[in-house]
Amino acid sequence: MNIKKTTLTITLVTLLAGVRPALAQDVATVNGTVIPDSQFNQILTGALNQGQKDTPELRNTIRNELINRELLAQAASKEGVDKTPEAKLAWNQVHQNFLIELYLIDYNQKHRITDEQVEAQYDKEVSQLKAAGVSQQFKVSLITVASQAEANAVIAQLKKGESFEKVAREKSIDTSKAQGGVVGWVLPVQLTPEIGAAVTKLNKGGVTAPIQGPSGWNIVKLDDKRPFKVPTFAEAQNQLRQQLLQQQRIELINKLRSEAKINTP
């Protein structure tokens, strides 16, 4: 009986020893540092998801890339380039961004935006649009400058015949300057009351007088307008979900700030 148990045990150990490398096998060992199979599989999965075919050549390329990266990392550590003040600052920023991303992913999973919340937001916004009597949508371009004097100078340039796009790229401090000031299609309720009222009175191609706002002085051009049709829930749900996620993030940050001890100079 004892002999049979021993023989069976030896047989199982031998079989498992043959199976183990197939289940998990390290990619390589570089100067004593192991490159795990999990790291290889993560990159391989990403490549396959992007449409690449699983071939021996692809696997060999990934393996060599991981080895090369490990060699470079070891060389950098040996030279001490990670010990400089600049490197430590950069690493702290990378580490902070990594923690923030992990935390927000975890928070979103624990506080999921439900379909019911998205539907409720859709109904709320549709009701607001109907109450506001929104019937038209406007395509606008924007130039924002810091002072009224700069805004008057912009108006003077436009009256001399310079294109709105050119002046926006040169003078605007709004992020839309990269697109020549083009903001795109908006509803009056999406603008400040002053800008919304001014835009609705413009003819196509018209430009407002300078209007002061929270970010500076604004000159708005009406590029086009069209009748507004309320989007269906199917058309709007993805944007509404992102809107609710952004709102959730703002509420989270406000909560954390209210609970924190923050000292500023």
Task: Give a quick precis of the structure.
The chain is of the alpha+beta class and 265 residues long. Helix content is 60%, strand content 14%. The relative contact order is 0.08.
| CATH fold annotation of the domain at 130-227 | Chitinase A, domain 3
Order of helices and strands: HEEHHHHEHHEHEEH
Helix content: 55-70%
* Structural shape: extended
Distance between the termini: 81 Å
- The unreliable regions are 1-23
Largest sheet: 4 strands, antiparallel
Q: Given the structure, what is the number of helices?
A: 9
Average pLDDT figure: 89
Q: Count of DSSP E strands?
A: 6
Strand order in the sheet with the most strands: 4-3-6-5
Content of β-strand: 5-15%
Class of the domain at 130-227 in CATH? Answer: Alpha Beta
Spatial extent as radius of gyration: 30 Å
Query: In CATH terms, what is the architecture of the domain at 130-227?
Result: Roll
Which structural class fits the helix and strand makeup? alpha+beta
Catalytic activity: [protein]-peptidylproline (omega=180) = [protein]-peptidylproline (omega=0)
Keywords: Isomerase, Rotamase
Organism: Fluviibacter phosphoraccumulans
Family: Belongs to the PpiC/parvulin rotamase family.
